[in-house]
Amino acid sequence: MIESWLKEIEENYRIEILFASETGSRVWGGATKQSDYDIRFIYKHRDIRSYLSLRKAQETIDFPAPYDAQGWDIYKAFHLMQKSNPGLCEWVFSPVLYRDCQHFSVRLRKYIKDNYSLVSLFYHYIHLMDRNVKDICHKALTERKQKQFIQAVRAFLLAKVIVTEQKVPLDALYSDFSSSFPEDDTIVTFYQQLLAAKVKGELFPASDVRTVLVRIEQEKQGLLDESHRLPKGKLIEKELNRWIWELLRV
Question: pTM (2 decimals)?
Protein backbone atom coordinates (compact mmCIF):
# COMPACT_ATOMS: atom_id res chain seq x y z
CA MET A 1 0.00 0.00 0.00
CA ILE A 2 2.72 2.48 0.97
CA GLU A 3 4.98 1.36 -1.87
CA SER A 4 2.25 2.03 -4.44
CA TRP A 5 1.71 5.46 -2.87
CA LEU A 6 5.44 6.22 -3.17
CA LYS A 7 5.35 5.25 -6.84
CA GLU A 8 2.40 7.57 -7.39
CA ILE A 9 4.35 10.45 -5.83
CA GLU A 10 7.30 9.70 -8.11
CA GLU A 11 5.12 9.95 -11.19
CA ASN A 12 3.24 13.06 -10.08
CA TYR A 13 6.37 14.99 -9.07
CA ARG A 14 8.80 13.48 -11.61
CA ILE A 15 11.20 12.40 -8.89
CA GLU A 16 12.97 9.24 -7.80
CA ILE A 17 12.58 8.33 -4.13
CA LEU A 18 15.89 6.92 -2.92
CA PHE A 19 14.97 6.30 0.70
CA ALA A 20 11.79 6.24 2.80
CA SER A 21 11.20 5.27 6.41
CA GLU A 22 8.71 5.32 9.30
CA THR A 23 9.60 7.69 12.13
CA GLY A 24 6.57 8.09 14.41
CA SER A 25 5.07 6.23 17.33
CA ARG A 26 4.73 3.09 15.21
CA VAL A 27 8.48 2.57 15.56
CA TRP A 28 9.22 4.06 18.98
CA GLY A 29 6.55 2.07 20.76
CA GLY A 30 3.62 4.37 21.48
CA ALA A 31 1.27 3.55 18.62
CA THR A 32 -2.46 3.08 19.02
CA LYS A 33 -5.07 2.04 16.47
CA GLN A 34 -5.57 5.73 15.67
CA SER A 35 -1.88 6.51 15.12
CA ASP A 36 -0.87 7.99 11.79
CA TYR A 37 1.91 6.70 9.60
CA ASP A 38 4.81 9.18 9.76
CA ILE A 39 6.69 8.67 6.49
CA ARG A 40 9.88 10.55 5.64
CA PHE A 41 11.75 10.23 2.36
CA ILE A 42 14.71 11.53 0.36
CA TYR A 43 14.43 12.02 -3.39
CA LYS A 44 16.16 13.39 -6.47
CA HIS A 45 14.58 15.05 -9.49
CA ARG A 46 14.59 12.83 -12.57
CA ASP A 47 15.40 15.69 -14.93
CA ILE A 48 18.88 17.01 -14.13
CA ARG A 49 17.88 20.33 -15.70
CA SER A 50 15.81 20.94 -12.57
CA TYR A 51 19.11 21.65 -10.82
CA LEU A 52 20.37 23.91 -13.62
CA SER A 53 17.46 26.32 -13.94
CA LEU A 54 16.75 29.83 -12.70
CA ARG A 55 13.88 28.46 -10.63
CA LYS A 56 15.28 26.45 -7.75
CA ALA A 57 14.42 22.76 -7.73
CA GLN A 58 11.69 21.87 -5.22
CA GLU A 59 13.51 20.94 -2.02
CA THR A 60 10.61 19.80 0.15
CA ILE A 61 7.38 17.91 -0.51
CA ASP A 62 4.74 17.68 2.23
CA PHE A 63 1.60 15.56 2.50
CA PRO A 64 -0.98 15.75 5.30
CA ALA A 65 -2.92 12.77 3.89
CA PRO A 66 -3.35 9.86 3.43
CA TYR A 67 -0.14 9.73 5.50
CA ASP A 68 1.74 12.33 7.51
CA ALA A 69 4.64 12.52 5.07
CA GLN A 70 7.53 14.77 4.15
CA GLY A 71 10.30 14.42 1.60
CA TRP A 72 13.62 16.22 1.14
CA ASP A 73 15.59 16.62 -2.07
CA ILE A 74 19.16 15.28 -1.93
CA TYR A 75 20.61 18.80 -1.83
CA LYS A 76 18.51 19.74 1.19
CA ALA A 77 19.20 16.41 2.91
CA PHE A 78 22.95 16.66 2.40
CA HIS A 79 23.09 20.32 3.48
CA LEU A 80 21.29 19.33 6.68
CA MET A 81 23.64 16.39 7.16
CA GLN A 82 26.49 18.90 7.22
CA LYS A 83 24.67 20.61 10.10
CA SER A 84 24.18 17.33 12.01
CA ASN A 85 20.41 17.56 11.61
CA PRO A 86 18.72 15.30 14.21
CA GLY A 87 15.62 14.74 12.09
CA LEU A 88 17.67 13.19 9.31
CA CYS A 89 19.42 11.00 11.87
CA GLU A 90 16.06 9.69 13.10
CA TRP A 91 14.89 9.03 9.53
CA VAL A 92 17.99 7.07 8.61
CA PHE A 93 18.18 4.84 11.68
CA SER A 94 14.51 3.89 11.66
CA PRO A 95 14.04 0.11 11.82
CA VAL A 96 11.16 0.35 9.31
CA LEU A 97 12.29 1.19 5.78
CA TYR A 98 9.78 1.49 2.95
CA ARG A 99 12.38 2.23 0.28
CA ASP A 100 16.16 1.87 0.27
CA CYS A 101 17.47 2.03 -3.30
CA GLN A 102 20.83 0.33 -3.73
CA HIS A 103 21.32 0.35 0.06
CA PHE A 104 21.18 4.15 0.15
CA SER A 105 20.80 4.06 3.94
CA VAL A 106 24.12 2.24 4.48
CA ARG A 107 26.15 5.17 3.21
CA LEU A 108 23.96 7.68 5.03
CA ARG A 109 24.36 5.84 8.32
CA LYS A 110 28.14 5.67 8.01
CA TYR A 111 28.43 9.41 7.31
CA ILE A 112 26.21 10.20 10.28
CA LYS A 113 27.97 7.84 12.70
CA ASP A 114 31.42 9.05 11.69
CA ASN A 115 30.86 12.79 11.30
CA TYR A 116 27.84 14.10 13.22
CA SER A 117 28.35 16.67 15.96
CA LEU A 118 27.36 15.04 19.23
CA VAL A 119 27.24 18.47 20.84
CA SER A 120 24.57 19.58 18.34
CA LEU A 121 22.56 16.40 18.83
CA PHE A 122 22.75 16.68 22.60
CA TYR A 123 21.53 20.27 22.70
CA HIS A 124 18.76 19.52 20.23
CA TYR A 125 17.29 16.90 22.54
CA ILE A 126 17.82 18.98 25.70
CA HIS A 127 16.04 21.95 24.10
CA LEU A 128 13.28 19.68 22.78
CA MET A 129 12.78 18.38 26.29
CA ASP A 130 12.73 21.91 27.73
CA ARG A 131 10.16 23.16 25.20
CA ASN A 132 7.79 20.28 25.83
CA VAL A 133 8.13 20.51 29.61
CA LYS A 134 7.47 24.25 29.52
CA ASP A 135 4.33 23.69 27.48
CA ILE A 136 2.85 21.08 29.81
CA CYS A 137 4.04 22.38 33.17
CA HIS A 138 1.28 23.40 35.60
CA LYS A 139 -1.43 22.29 33.15
CA ALA A 140 -3.97 19.49 33.29
CA LEU A 141 -2.65 16.26 31.81
CA THR A 142 -4.77 15.65 28.72
CA GLU A 143 -4.09 12.98 26.10
CA ARG A 144 -2.27 15.58 23.99
CA LYS A 145 -0.22 16.84 26.94
CA GLN A 146 0.69 13.28 27.90
CA LYS A 147 1.99 12.72 24.36
CA GLN A 148 4.14 15.84 24.74
CA PHE A 149 5.39 14.54 28.07
CA ILE A 150 6.42 11.26 26.43
CA GLN A 151 8.35 13.28 23.84
CA ALA A 152 10.01 15.27 26.62
CA VAL A 153 11.12 12.19 28.55
CA ARG A 154 12.29 10.46 25.36
CA ALA A 155 14.33 13.54 24.39
CA PHE A 156 15.93 13.68 27.83
CA LEU A 157 16.89 10.01 27.71
CA LEU A 158 18.40 10.39 24.24
CA ALA A 159 20.47 13.34 25.48
CA LYS A 160 21.59 11.20 28.41
CA VAL A 161 22.59 8.34 26.08
CA ILE A 162 24.66 10.74 23.96
CA VAL A 163 26.61 11.94 27.00
CA THR A 164 26.96 8.46 28.51
CA GLU A 165 27.99 6.59 25.35
CA GLN A 166 29.76 9.44 23.51
CA LYS A 167 28.26 8.44 20.16
CA VAL A 168 25.21 8.86 17.96
CA PRO A 169 22.39 7.10 19.88
CA LEU A 170 21.51 4.81 16.99
CA ASP A 171 20.57 1.86 19.21
CA ALA A 172 18.46 4.00 21.54
CA LEU A 173 16.50 6.06 19.01
CA TYR A 174 13.72 3.50 18.67
CA SER A 175 14.06 1.59 21.93
CA ASP A 176 12.49 1.66 25.38
CA PHE A 177 15.98 2.44 26.79
CA SER A 178 16.09 -0.74 28.87
CA SER A 179 19.42 -1.75 27.32
CA SER A 180 20.96 1.72 27.73
CA PHE A 181 20.59 2.18 31.49
CA PRO A 182 20.38 0.09 34.70
CA GLU A 183 17.12 -1.68 35.41
CA ASP A 184 16.44 0.55 38.40
CA ASP A 185 16.64 3.83 36.45
CA THR A 186 13.54 5.71 37.59
CA ILE A 187 13.12 7.80 34.46
CA VAL A 188 13.47 4.82 32.13
CA THR A 189 10.89 2.87 34.12
CA PHE A 190 8.53 5.82 34.02
CA TYR A 191 9.04 6.23 30.26
CA GLN A 192 8.09 2.60 29.71
CA GLN A 193 5.01 3.03 31.88
CA LEU A 194 4.05 6.16 29.94
CA LEU A 195 4.22 4.28 26.63
CA ALA A 196 2.12 1.45 28.02
CA ALA A 197 -0.47 3.92 29.28
CA LYS A 198 -0.63 5.69 25.91
CA VAL A 199 -1.24 2.42 24.08
CA LYS A 200 -4.06 1.60 26.52
CA GLY A 201 -5.54 5.10 26.29
CA GLU A 202 -4.91 5.82 29.97
CA LEU A 203 -3.71 9.04 31.62
CA PHE A 204 -0.99 9.15 34.26
CA PRO A 205 -1.58 10.80 37.67
CA ALA A 206 -0.33 14.39 37.76
CA SER A 207 1.62 13.66 40.96
CA ASP A 208 3.72 11.01 39.16
CA VAL A 209 4.42 13.43 36.34
CA ARG A 210 5.65 16.10 38.77
CA THR A 211 7.93 13.56 40.47
CA VAL A 212 9.63 12.69 37.21
CA LEU A 213 9.94 16.34 36.16
CA VAL A 214 11.81 17.05 39.38
CA ARG A 215 14.13 14.08 38.76
CA ILE A 216 14.82 15.22 35.19
CA GLU A 217 15.72 18.72 36.33
CA GLN A 218 18.06 17.28 38.95
CA GLU A 219 19.89 15.14 36.37
CA LYS A 220 19.90 17.72 33.58
CA GLN A 221 22.56 19.95 35.10
CA GLY A 222 24.98 17.04 35.37
CA LEU A 223 24.49 16.26 31.68
CA LEU A 224 25.07 19.90 30.76
CA ASP A 225 28.29 19.89 32.76
CA GLU A 226 29.49 16.76 30.91
CA SER A 227 28.43 17.94 27.44
CA HIS A 228 31.63 19.94 26.91
CA ARG A 229 33.43 16.63 26.31
CA LEU A 230 31.29 15.76 23.29
CA PRO A 231 32.89 15.81 19.81
CA LYS A 232 31.90 18.68 17.53
CA GLY A 233 31.82 16.60 14.35
CA LYS A 234 33.47 16.98 10.95
CA LEU A 235 32.48 18.60 7.66
CA ILE A 236 32.45 16.23 4.67
CA GLU A 237 31.54 18.56 1.82
CA LYS A 238 33.85 16.87 -0.70
CA GLU A 239 32.45 13.41 0.02
CA LEU A 240 28.86 14.61 -0.23
CA ASN A 241 29.56 16.48 -3.47
CA ARG A 242 30.97 13.31 -5.00
CA TRP A 243 27.90 11.39 -3.89
CA ILE A 244 25.55 13.95 -5.44
CA TRP A 245 27.46 13.75 -8.71
CA GLU A 246 27.14 9.97 -8.63
CA LEU A 247 23.40 10.17 -8.02
CA LEU A 248 22.92 12.67 -10.84
CA ARG A 249 25.34 10.78 -13.09
CA VAL A 250 27.45 13.85 -13.96
Answer: 0.92
